Amino acid sequence: MRKSLRRGLLAYALAPGAVPLATFFRSALIEPLAGGKLENAAAYGTASTGTSYVICSGFSRLVPSKRAEPASVESVLICVLWPFKRNPKSCTLSSMPKTFAIVNLGCAKNEVDAEGMAQVLRGAGYLPTGDADGATVVIVNTCGFIQAATDESVGELARLARRKRPGQLLVAAGCLAQKWADKLAAQLPEVDAVLGTRRWGEIADLLAEAERGLRPCWTGAGSAAPRVRRLAHGASAYLKIADGCSVGCAFCVIPSLKGPYRSRPRAEVIAEAAELAAQGVKELVLIAQDTTFYGRDRGEQDGLVHLVEGILAAAPTAPWLRLMYAYPTHLDAELLRLMAGEPRLLPYVDLPLQHAHPDVLRRMRRPAADPRKLVARLRAAVPGVVLRSTFIVGFPGETDDEFAALLRFLEEARLERVGVFAYSREEGTPAAALPDQVPDNVKQRRVDEAMRLQQRLSHELNRGQVGRVLDVLVEGTAPLAARSVRPGSGRARRRREVLTCGRSYRDAPEVDGLVLFRGQASPGEIVPVRITEALPYDLVGERARTET
Asked: What is the pLDDT of residue 492?
């Protein structure tokens, strides 16, 4: 019992994040004796104590102080680990906790995969840590969708490679790892392993090979992704219902990175939704490359409708269900009827249209029908629906007239939420080989012009919300500067106020605006807020009284 307690105390003391006991060991014992400051004490190595050996926490860096000549690191370890000298076999490497840190880049779908990897590693005995420098394993879940994302991913891998400690493992995972597996391994020799997008469930096996120095590089289809228990990290959670894409837009690398569209089993998705709701999640956000194609790869009719109905029944405590990433030709009437009649399925449609001119859409290999008709159909079918879309400008061959057509569409359609992006020429895509590539400065000018227009339109639409009472899902609070109040004729006193922020049904997490109001509310609550002011992208209000 005493040996187990000592071993547990030592592991706790030297593990990142164990502040009170770690502070004692480091500041009261190790650092004074060594004459320096210990940084990143999380690697595990072997130190000699005469004829015996003990496993102990290694030093990644000992910064000397200006005091007397420091004692040797080994003598310090003998002092701290003396209780283990009698029976060094009782403290083995396997008894020391291995830790992992995941740096997640890219979209919400990557975030879900990162959560899956974390659960697999927990099941293999690893402990999570937010300290990438001190972790036993650092995994960068990369994005390679466009050049800017590639640059960010390579930069993060290079930064971590420069800071890498002896014995630490650095893993490149995700889309860029799938896209550039051999190139990453050649350019960054510090990367110990590469894991493709379709094999994240094999992360523990990959690390076992990396620990043996084999430098594994696993891409391709691999085995089916495991079913892991999701852990809630707030009031909202992403629920990935499918992976891959079979559409083949001319500008997109996703099919080459993720493979063809594959719907997850319906029962599995429903069980995951119920699991998250049981942990207090209030908003389930359905995501895929195309949520509206769900089930069609298996020949199902109304697959998404049946899935949504199943989630609503299995997760009754989750009052909000939100759909993201719909495809223009896959939005069927039955889904819209369900959205119009079911209050828990939010009247919000994320519909990436990409452009409004038919010739550009044909070059993009996208549906070329007039998007105005689709917008009109959605607004007629679902009263009060909020529409979000994204557009690409500067696509090869885009003329001034074609860009002007997009601006006219934005003015007429008055979409509530819009993102505009410059075309990124991606190697291996059909669009990369098209003639008449648009210069970068022209692309950026068009982005700026389109977003200036949308900012004005968004502000006008937000003004239309003033006076309404919206249900707001609270995400957090921040203190405001205290102000003086003088009740009656008494003495002035200071009162500290709180600013609370959240989102209404009009706002998807991370990509849309916020609702701000004074007053206290707990994260995860849904409270009524009367809108009093409109900003270009956000709303300001006051908490409304709940009618009884």
From this structure: 55
The CA–CA distances, whole Å, from 105 to 152, 252, 373, 500 equal 8, 18, 36, 28
User: Do the Cβ atoms of 392 and 352 come closer than 8 Å?
Assistant: no
Determine phi and psi for 75, rounding to 5 degrees. -65, -35
Q: Full-prediction pTM beyond 0.70?
A: yes
Residues 509 and 521: beta-carbon distance below 8 Å: no
Query: Which strands make up the sheet holding 283-287, listed edge to edge?
Result: 236-240, 283-287, 320-323, 345-350, 386-393, 417-422
**The two three-digit tokens of residue 235, written as one number:** 């009031």
Query: How far is it, in rounded angstroms, from Cα 34 to Cα 292?
Result: 62
Which residues lie closer than 8 Å to 93 by C-beta, 6 or more apart? 44, 55
Q: Which domains does the chain have, with CATH numbers?
A: 2-94 (no CATH), 97-218 (3.40.50.12160), 236-460 (3.80.30.20), 469-543 (2.40.50.140)
Beta strands per DSSP E along 50-136: 52-57, 61-64, 98-104, 126-128
Range 186-190 contact pairs with CB under 8 angstroms and sequence separation of 24 or more: 187/154, 188/157, 188/158, 188/161, 190/161, 190/164
pLDDT tens across 98-118, in order? 999 999 998 888 888 899 999
For 218, the token pair is 């696993």
pLDDT in the model for residue 275: 96
Question: Which amino acid, one-letter code, is at 280?
Answer: G
Query: What tokens were used for 420?
Result: 């505009």
Residues 495 and 483: their CA atoms lie apart, in Å, by 6
Token pair for 33: 């004796």
Among residues 424, 429, 430, which one has the least CA distance to residue 392? 424
pLDDT tens-digit readout, 10-38: 333 343 333 333 333 333 344 343 334 33
- Between CA 267 and CA 249 the distance in angstroms is 30
Separation between Cα atoms, residue 256 and residue 429, nearest integer Å: 9
Q: Write out pLDDT tens, residues 161-180.
A: 999 999 999 999 999 999 88
Query: Percentage helix, strand, coil, to 5, in the chain?
Result: 40, 25, 40
Please state, in angstroms and rounded to a whole number, the distance separating the CA atoms of residues 199 and 37: 41
Beta strands in 50-205 (DSSP E): 52-57, 61-64, 98-104, 126-128, 137-142, 169-174, 193-195
Cα four-point dihedral sign 337, 342, 347, 351: negative
- Tokens encoding 473: 């899902």
